[in-house]
Automatic annotation (TrEMBL):
Record-listed Zn(2+) binding positions: C348, D350, H511, C526
Keyword terms, alphabetized: Cell membrane, Membrane, Metal-binding, Transport, Zinc
Domain of life: Bacteria
GO cellular component: plasma membrane
Protein name: Probable inorganic carbon transporter subunit DabA
Cofactor(s) required, per the database record: Zn(2+)
Function: Part of an energy-coupled inorganic carbon pump.
Lineage, uppermost ranks: Bacteria, Pseudomonadati, Pseudomonadota, Gammaproteobacteria, Celerinatantimonadaceae
UniProt KW Protein biosynthesis keyword: no
Membrane topology (UniProt): Peripheral membrane protein
Length: 805
């Protein structure tokens, strides 16, 4: 079969290209050890958020908006009449305030849910054993894929990528007698009759399902509905496709398509069984599926209309946060800019940096803080000294172009090999009782450290990175020349906006968390560093910027570093709110940093059940205990409550307190005449912030679909792939319940990101015109765009116009 430009020819549905479209509708889900926040609707960014949520409501039963009770609890508390009126004006919907209030008191859920064949069978013909058809499909496929990815060497199918998955599944399912035990029907012969190649499978499917699918839209809805049965595993398969894309590999049969083939094969087997054993029911269910397919666009439109009142309440909630901040911006007095501060602390734009930055700035005007992309402009993969592990240290949207590696001559490998190699050896089939018993003695040491000394364990890969060591940078396995390093370093300094006023001390401050016994620890580290800490990135950059040979050549790239400027790598521990500075001498400025950390700890302790009016030692001990307690479910709140990003000089916002809810990216339009830095910010960090914002949104608004459930019930799958909640079901993706809820209330409010930019409107519009992804996010309602002019007046971008606020 060849792919055609159109998917219908003379009313004939061609299944293959439709299946590819359905497979491409799934956002990737990163593994636990590289946890990157993902916008689960990224593949739908070119459609409006309202339409996307309507389609989701039909295909999954999940609206994407909070329950009415949530908005009801905020009415006349956080959401006021002025917010509701403004929301109605912006959305141009014909509702009155009274009608919207009455709407919240009614409970009439959407009744237009798309039903899969298995769901219809559960309603009309329960299995002889009483087990759910739908749940058996989920269990069988989910357990198989977990086995497939944990032990890939056990499967020797001929196909590649998605076809390899399908053929491996077919080999297993044709011998799986457990299906008959659970369902009470023998389907083995039906599975054996299925085609062994994907092309043959889809050729048979399009002939069989032609009358049921009706047309392209019906077929696509059917296939998307199938994938949503296992959206977690679909996300994992999509991640495999994403990685192939970053490596510029063209996959004839994507990994996600393999999962879709399995689910469609299951449906074909069930329908064949029905036709052979219950022909009347088979005919009835075929008619029901056909009826759904013919009405699919009508169902989408009905859902979109029914969700309109909820959209008003959601917009009112967002305005209740935006309007006070906009008023503060208008009234703020910009801080005077020091000609040359004593210390410049450059932080990741992560919202957890904002309270720490305020605390440091409170120590004196000679301390200046800035926000920059968390990977610090170094597009690297970190390679351990022996070359055994290579790990991306940049946003998931990007592929590394450089490899960073330390140059020491005598690597200390035993610690990492002990922690990685010993653990993996215990998972091998040849592990015997002697090894298990011997490991118990070593485990006693670990238990003592955790329970008595309250010491956690550091990532063994990170332990390979040593202090006071030189780094080498390679591109395509060739070392960078000094000139290439100088060009890279100069570009980063320009992007930070400090090339004309570098301080004596510049702290390059990455961030990472500190937790114990936490399989989701990566989700608390730096998403811009690929779900790792920023330690490697800041050490590489500090080494680069302190290199005399590099500095000597930087002036040819329009950057001159003063002789007395020294760059130090530093790490902000976001769990205990301390800053560790590597290789720094004793100096008075360090005391100010330490005082700022204590102030930040005191402020942040209010988020927890900390001692009242604690002493410095008490507050320090409190946070250390949270970080090292292996039973602690909520060591920190991560990026909870993120709501906005400011792309502007810090001087504009220095007097404002955003409560740890804002990403702050330094930007000076006066230093960017060609708007190249603005373009980089809007096309990279802004997209990362959108991903973070909508993952937190989804984990709260759709916890059953895009949240990973109760952390207490998690079982890690495949060592690092993800988690099951309990012993099976779909792979759970997104944030756990404990990451966004404190047991009494949500710690994150599901709001779309508000983006505030101080730059000329034409420059912003030009960047959107040249970058479809950015334009789609703005024009389709996935984030809000605000402009701040030189007089601090604010306007909002909507439908191609700037409207004064």
């Amino acid at each position: 079969m060849t792919e055609a430009n159109t998917v219908e020819t003379k009313n004939r549905i061609v299944a293959w290209p439709i299946a590819k479209l359905a497979a491409a509708s799934i956002a990737p889900a990163w593994p636990l050890d590289q946890s990157v926040a993902v916008n689960p609707w990224w593949p739908q960014r070119h459609a409006s958020i309202e339409r996307t949520f309507a389609e989701q409501a039909v295909l999954t039963g999940e609206t994407g908006l909070m329950d009415r009770s949530y908005y009801r609890s905020l009415w006349q508390q956080q959401i006021k009449s002025e917010h509701l009126k403004q929301a109605l004006k912006q959305l141009q919907l014909p509702f009155s305030e009274n009608r919207l209030e009455e709407y919240l008191l009614r409970e009439n859920p959407l009744n237009m849910r798309w039903k899969t064949l298995a769901m219809l069978m559960d309603e009309t013909i329960p299995s002889p054993q009483g087990h759910s058809w739908e749940q058996e499909i989920i269990a069988q496929v989910s357990q198989f894929i977990a086995l497939y990815h944990k032990y890939p060497e056990r499967f020797e199918a001929e196909g590649q990528n998605g076809e390899h998955l399908y053929q491996s599944w077919l080999e297993v399912v044709t011998r799986d007698k457990g299906i008959k035990t659970l369902l009470g029907v023998d389907l083995l012969n039906d599975f054996r009759a299925m085609p062994t190649t994907m092309m043959q499978l889809f050729s048979e499917l399009e002939q069989f399902w032609q009358p049921i699918w009706n047309d392209h839209d019906g077929a696509e809805a059917y296939m998307r509905g199938c994938l949503h049965q296992l959206s977690g595993w679909a996300g994992w398969q999509s991640w495999l496709d994403w990685q192939a894309g970053l490596k510029q590999q063209q996959l004839r049969i994507p990994h996600t398509l393999g999962l879709l083939a399995i689910l469609l094969a299951w449906d074909r087997v069930l329908m064949r069984w029905l036709q052979q054993n219950h022909p009347q029911i088979a005919s009835q269910l075929s008619q029901m599926l056909h009826h759904q397919a013919t009405r699919i666009n009508s169902l989408y439109e009905q859902a979109e209309q029914q969700l309109q009142p909820l959209w008003v309440w959601q917009r009112a909630l967002e305005l209740s946060v935006q309007m006070p901040w906009i008023n503060q911006i208008k009234q703020a007095t910009p801080a005077p800019e020091q000609s040359r501060p004593e210390v410049q602390a450059v932080f990741c734009i992560d919202v957890r940096s904002e309270p720490m930055r305020r605390a440091l700035e409170a120590q004196g005007s000679e301390i200046e803080t800035l926000g920059f992309a968390g990977f610090f402009g170094i597009p690297i993969a970190y390679q351990t000294h022996d070359g055994s592990i290579t790990r991306p240290q940049l946003p998931g949207l990007m592929a590394p172009s450089l490899v960073a590696k330390q140059t020491r001559l005598q690597p200390d490998r035993w610690v990492r090999l002990t922690q990685l190699g010993w653990q993996s050896s215990l998972e091998k089939p040849y592990s015997n009782l002697g090894m298990i018993e011997a490991s118990g003695l070593l485990k006693l040491v670990s238990l003592f450290k955790r329970a008595v000394l309250q010491q956690g364990s550091k990532n063994p890969v990170n332990k390979d990175a040593r202090p006071n060591e030189k780094w080498e940078l390679k591109r395509d396995e060739q070392p960078l020349s000094v000139t290439e390093k100088a060009e890279l370093a100069a570009g980063i300094i320009k992007a930070m906006g400090i090339k004309a006023r570098l301080a004596n001390v510049v702290l390059l401050t990455g961030h990472g968390s500190q937790t114990c016994n936490n399989h989701t620890a990566s989700s608390l580290d730096c998403g811009a560093c690929g779900g790792q800490t920023g330690e490697v990135n800041v050490k590489v950059l500090a080494s680069l910027l302190n290199d005399p040979a590099v500095r000597k050549q930087m002036p040819q790239f329009d950057v001159t570093v003063p002789n007395d400027t020294q760059f130090y790598a530093a790490m902000h521990n976001t769990t205990i709110d301390e800053i560790l500075i590597f290789d720094a001498p004793k100096a008075s400025w360090r005391e100010k940093i330490e005082r700022g950390c204590r102030q930040a700890q005191l402020t942040r302790s209010q988020q927890f059940d900390a001692p009242k009016a604690p002493s410095e030692s008490e507050i320090k001990r409190f946070f250390k205990q949270r970080a090292t307690n292996w039973a602690q479910m909520r060591p920190e709140w991560g990026l909870c409550n993120n709501a906005a990003v400011f792309i502007a000089p810090r001087a504009l916002t220095r007097s404002l307190d955003f409560g740890g809810r804002a990403f702050l990216h330094e930007y000076h339009v006066s230093q960017d005449p060609q708007f190249t830095q603005l373009e980089k910010i809007m096309t990279a960090p802004l997209l990362v912030m959108n991903w973070i914002n909508l993952q937190y949104y989804a984990s709260v608004a759709l916890p059953n679909k895009y949240g990973s459930g109760n952390k207490l019930l998690h079982n890690v799958v495949g060592g690092h792939i993800g988690v099951f909640e309990g012993n099976g079901g779909d792979l759970r993706i997104g944030l756990s319940q404990q990451s966004v809820h404190d047991g009494r209330k949500y710690r994150h409010q599901p709001l779309r990101l508000s983006t505030y930019i101080q730059a000329p409107k034409p420059a912003i519009e030009d960047i959107m015109a040249r970058h479809d992804d950015v334009a789609s996010l703005v024009n389709n309602g996935w984030l809000f765009l605000y402009h701040i002019d030189a007089d601090q007046q604010v306007s909002r971008y909507q439908n191609g116009q700037w409207l004064a606020v």
